[in-house]
Amino acid sequence: MPTVTPSGVCGLKWSPDSQYLASGGNDNRLLVWSQHAPADGGPVLTYEEHVAAVKAIAWSPHQHGLLASGGGTADRCIRFWNTLTGQALRSVDTGSQVCNIAWSIHSNELVSTHGYSQNQILVWRYPSMTQLVKLTGHSYRVLYLAISPDGENIVTGAGDETLRFWNIFTRAKTPKVCFEYQVTDPLF
Fold first, then answer.
1. Confidence (pTM)
2. WD repeats at which positions (predicted)?
């Protein structure tokens, strides 16, 4: 079994068809692995354009082979890759560390969460990468992101010990905080 990265894996995401796994590393590399591994057991694609750790990874549910990745504090970019051709498609400087990326299941939009120095949540339209919404409220890095099963709401968690629930991909509504919880006591 080959070593993925000697400096550690910090992001993993399966493609919607379960044929590929993308891994991000502290070595600033994004690797794509196939279920049908090559003879050497290594990745089928290696991208080295990020200049900081790659934690945020998301496969598009709308376009087969489209992969988005986000870099850390020194990088600040969301990058898009065509994994069918191996080509880099574009890069957008977000102005801060990219902690998470997730695609809407209903539209060609994605949400990204950020750390230093903005601590915000951004909603983008792809492929123009027009920023649709900027959500603020967390006072520390927005480290965690989950989309509800219906695809309309997200929950974000940050180092400020809060969870915020947002209506974000609902039709004809302005995104807003639905609930906020202070996380101070362990659950177990």
1. 0.89
2. 9-34, 135-168
